[in-house]
Amino acid sequence: MVEKYVTVELTTGLQARPAAQFVQKANSYTSDLFIEKDGKRINAKSIMGLMSLAIASGEEILVIADGNDEEKALKELLSFVSES
């Protein structure tokens, strides 16, 4: 299992279209993927879970990956939310 904190730099945060793109990327991996914010952990492959966190630009989240492709998954998802 690998995990890392990242500050969301997307101008719209992880809302609507960026959230859908994030979930689509997450679903391309076999690893279990989670996002944690304010003590709440959700499945990163769930659009409803991700939307429930209401992640705004500038907020810090914890991205967790556990599985065969965890390193690659974590790297791509961190890169996605770090793009401004």
UniProtKB/TrEMBL annotation:
PROSITE patterns: PTS_HPR_DOM, PTS_HPR_SER. Residues 1-84 form the HPr domain. InterPro entries: HPr, HPr-like, HPr-like_sf, PTS_HPr_Ser_P_site. Belongs to the HPr family. PANTHER family: HPR-LIKE PROTEIN CRH, PHOSPHOCARRIER PROTEIN HPR. This is HPr family phosphocarrier protein. It comes from Terrihalobacillus insolitus.
